[in-house]
Amino acid sequence: MTDPKDALVLIEQRGHTRMLTLNRPHVRNALSVALSNTLVAELHSADDDVDTRVILLTGAGGAFCSGVDLKDLSENGFDGAESVDGNCITHLADVRTPVVGLVSGPAVTGGFELALACDFLIATPDARFADTHSRIGIVPGGGLTARLSEAVGVRRARQMSSTGAYLDADTALAWGVVNEIVPPAQLHDRGWSVAEAMLTADARTLAAVWNLYDAVSADGIATAVEREAVVNRGWSVAGDEVAGRAKSVVTHGRSESATS
């Protein structure tokens, strides 16, 4: 029997709140096809559960998500091409239940897209955000160009996507990427606390308000998300090219960390 701790997504339910934890800490929770499939299934399970009214999404081992697993990508293609469930980021964005992201450590490239697909974010001081798609040679496929520009404005989004520069937690707070910063030891407790506060709202009313906020975002980004997906599906680059570029991106990320 598989130990639950070895599951790709850990699940904890407290009352009407469910925490989903990405559990590949040895690769900083990089998104493999298997992890994507599992996350999709767990998101829909939580969304379909009438007793679950808030979802918390976080990562194990002091990292949120370091992006797509490039080894897995080179074997299985872009955007989870071999995945039966497709892009987990798109599924996350479509979830009706409010999703609060709890971010520590890196949320990079696909991991950044995953964070942006949450309804809002709470972060720790060591949280870092970056879009390195252009450095690796991959066009985003999870709505990054739409949601990043919505979050920070198109000029800042262009700068992040073109330079691959890392955004530290304080700057992410100032730019509106995250709502608040809490000490690492308090991240999960703060998530549970915010969820508990959300549960004091009338469920039917909150659902209506959430739908209105979703509609505002959809008015501005739905077409942009689909346009990005079309370009992503038609993009092509050899797996060895991706792997080669990825090494330089890792080096770049470490140098950014050392100077921040």
Describe this structure in words.
By secondary structure, the protein is α/β, with parallel strands linked by helices. It contains 11 helices and 9 strands. It has helices at residues 33-48, 70-76, 88-94, 110-116, 133-136, 144-152, 154-163, 169-175, 187-199, 203-234, 239-259; strands spanning 9-14, 17-22, 54-59, 99-103, 106-108, 120-123, 128-130, 167-168, 180-181. The strands form 2 sheets. The protein has a 6-stranded mixed sheet, sandwiched between helices. A 3-stranded mixed sheet has the order 5-7-8. Helix 6 (144-152) packs across helix 7 (154-163) and helix 6 (144-152) crosses helix 10 (203-234). The termini are far apart.
Q: Which helices and strands occur, and which strands form pairs?
A:
Elements: E1 9-14, E2 17-22, H1 33-48, E3 54-59, H2 70-76, H3 88-94, E4 99-103, E5 106-108, H4 110-116, E6 120-123, E7 128-130, H5 133-136, H6 144-152, H7 154-163, E8 167-168, H8 169-175, E9 180-181, H9 187-199, H10 203-234, H11 239-259
Parallel strand pairs: 2-3, 3-4, 4-6, 5-7, 6-9
Antiparallel strand pairs: 1-2, 7-8
Helix pairs in contact: 1-3, 2-11, 4-6, 6-7, 6-10
